[in-house]
Amino acid sequence: MPHDHSVINSHHAHSEGLVEMLELDAATTGAYLDEIPAWIADRVECAPELIVDLGAGTGAGSIALARRFATASIRAVDASTAMLDHVAQRAEERGLASRIRTVLCDLDDGWPDAVTGADLVWASSSLHEVADPDRVLRDARDALRPGGLLAVIEMDVLPSFLPHDYPASAPGLEQRAHDALARLGWNAHGDWAHNIENAGLELIGRKTVTAESRGPATLAYARAWLTRLAAALPGHVDARDIDALETLLSDDAELRRVATTVRGSRTAVLARRPEDPSPQTRSAPRAAHDVTHEGEDHD
Ligand SMILES: C[S@@+](CC[C@H](N)C(=O)[O-])C[C@H]1O[C@@H](n2cnc3c(N)ncnc32)[C@H](O)[C@@H]1O
């Protein structure tokens, strides 16, 4: 079942704020944007020519994939014109406009007709947003050429900014906020592996990338994220926790002192559309390995 992420983000609302959040997320915990395409590159026999970025958002994935796979055309699919405008602008600024094309499509209404014969479908933090992920997975399988790859990437944990002992008067504020979001249905998504196999794809690997970052983008991300928390949580956590969040957000020096680091983690599940009707005959998947990335905010 898809999780209800509308508390924090949705393509139906908050586009402006979501654009900012996605940009800050990519700038801080975006190590996966380098690591996962590199990992996929090690697992393809031929360089992908057509890549679909499903629920492309601001295009961080489209740009990363275009850079890693230098001859590929990218179709950035999203239901939000605001997001796709952003993708087009980013692609233009980076000299990638001829290779990254936007496709306006609400996947809840069906798969975009023109998007077929893909070598790679990339779905990052988007599968949990659609109404019927199993149908979208089947459509993705049909849109892949035989042997083509599907990569589904989700956050393992919500981004965290505050020390566990914050605030001194009632330690554990951020954990209580995350627990409340989980109860509301906004949660780091679990494992899509079973759904992917049910859609007729064979699993070939899994990779987790953790990231930790400090710097100006981290502070801006903390401000944007904690502001959303403070708006989303009244009635779901103790009023003293909302007060503590609002007090922190009203004191820039204190926010700077406390929210120095952001931590995040994502896992990619990689699968292949079988070339023949008996996937059991294929060779065993290669072992996946975990990567930890620590660093400063990056562009
Ligand atoms: C959380 S964002 C992730 C964006 C990007 N893939 C990333 O990892 O940063 C989810 C994106 O999926 C898009 N989306 C949500 N539901 C959709 C649907 N039914 N059809 C197409 N796009 C959808 C939203 O507009 C948003 O841009």
Automatic annotation (TrEMBL):
Biased segments, Basic and acidic residues type: 287-299
Any single biological process term in GO: methylation
Chain spans, region Disordered: 266-299
Annotated keywords: Methyltransferase, Transferase
UniProt superkingdom: Bacteria
Entry GO MF terms: methyltransferase activity
Pfam families found in the cross-reference section: Methyltransf_25
Domain annotation Methyltransferase: ranges: 51-148
InterPro entries linked: Methyltransf_25, SAM-dependent_MTases_sf
Protein name per Swiss-Prot or TrEMBL: Methyltransferase family protein
